[in-house]
């Protein structure tokens, strides 16, 4: 089996256009029940008026944005993937909601004091291997918010992931639609980077290979990044059921407020 040796710093440009939904389609993480659970959580902890303006970035296929728009919020969705944006637009039309969608790199958004809430969900932070790029993203989210606007950041608990890394299988096979998926873990503990090499094998189709990367952070590091970006943490959860965040939590879902 061919293994990717070189880290692809622009992995997200290819991955989300050609592989993302195919790989995760059969996991149930995009189920209606899960989408509703996550959206209810978001609306509950944002605690802003139903007419408020929310930026969903990256919005993916619109699974959160559409449900929030149906509740009365004014939604803007930003993503870099043409494939996912097209799916999001189709979903919005199907559900008869108006959402403003834009194709944009998170590092290049230009909104200013426009939104009451910003949401960054489903481990969509840490896409860039350069810490300065990840910090820049948080600063741009802050600039996008109105004074005292609220921000939800949902990401992996880096310390817990790295602690469990040696116990995790290095290769996993599963079936997704009509294809078989092989995930090979090559995470680099010393650099705090999660690295997955992915191979899709389908009958009568060429083998496809992709890579996904994520820079991992712990709560102390994220707290400092948020402070540098003009945010104050209000609460930290361990999951979408509002459980308290613990060192052993798989996720950390952070509610912050813009203070400057």
Task: Characterise the protein shown here.
- The chain contains 8 helices and 11 strands.
- With 260 residues, the protein is an alpha/beta fold.
- The protein has a domain at 28-156 and 217-258: Rossmann fold (3-Layer(aba) Sandwich).
- The strands form 2 sheets. The chain has a 7-stranded mixed β-sheet with strand order 3-2-1-4-5-11-10, sandwiched between helices.
- Strand 1, helix 4 (63-70) and strand 2 form a beta-alpha-beta unit.
- The longest helix is centred in the first third of the chain and has 15 residues, at 32-46.
- It starts with 10 loop residues before the first helix and ends with a strand.
- 34% of the residues are buried.
- The model has no long low-confidence stretch (mean pLDDT 93).
CATH topology of the domain at 28-156 and 217-258: Rossmann fold
Helix content: 25-40%
Strand order of the largest sheet: 3-2-1-4-5-11-10
Intertermini distance: 51 Å
The biggest sheet, with number of strands, parallel, antiparallel or mixed sense and barrel status, is: 7 strands, mixed
Q: What coarse outline follows from CA principal-axis ratios? A: globular
CATH C-level label of the domain at 28-156 and 217-258:
Alpha Beta
N-to-C SSE string, H for helix and E for strand = HHHEHEHEEHEHEEEEHEE
CATH architecture of the domain at 28-156 and 217-258: 3-Layer(aba) Sandwich
Class by alpha and beta content: alpha/beta
Total count of helical runs of at least 4 residues: 8
């Amino acid at each position: 089996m061919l293994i990717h040796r070189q880290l692809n710093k622009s992995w997200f440009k290819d991955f989300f256009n050609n592989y993302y939904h195919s790989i995760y389609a059969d996991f149930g993480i995009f189920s209606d029940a899960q989408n509703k659970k996550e959206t209810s959580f978001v609306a509950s902890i944002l605690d802003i008026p139903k007419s408020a303006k929310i930026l969903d970035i990256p919005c993916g296929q619109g699974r959160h944005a559409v449900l929030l728009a149906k509740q009365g919020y004014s939604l803007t969705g930003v993503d870099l993937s043409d494939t996912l944006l097209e799916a999001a637009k189709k979903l919005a039309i199907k559900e008869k909601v108006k959402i403003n969608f834009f194709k944009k790199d998170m590092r290049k958004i230009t909104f200013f004091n426009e939104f009451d809430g910003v949401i960054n969900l489903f481990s969509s932070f840490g896409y860039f291997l350069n810490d300065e790029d990840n910090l820049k993203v948080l600063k741009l989210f802050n600039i996008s918010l109105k004074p005292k606007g609220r921000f939800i950041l949902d990401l992996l608990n880096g310390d817990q992931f790295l602690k469990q890394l040696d116990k995790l299988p290095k290769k996993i096979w599963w079936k997704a639609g009509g294809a078989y998926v092989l995930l090979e873990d090559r995470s680099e503990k010393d650099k705090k980077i999660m690295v997955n090499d992915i191979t899709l094998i389908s009958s009568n189709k060429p083998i496809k290979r992709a890579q996904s990367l994520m820079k991992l952070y712990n709560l102390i590091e994220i707290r400092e990044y948020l402070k540098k970006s003009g945010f104050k943490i209000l609460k930290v959860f361990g999951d979408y059921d509002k459980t308290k965040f613990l060192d052993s939590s798989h996720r950390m879902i952070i509610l912050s407020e813009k203070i400057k």
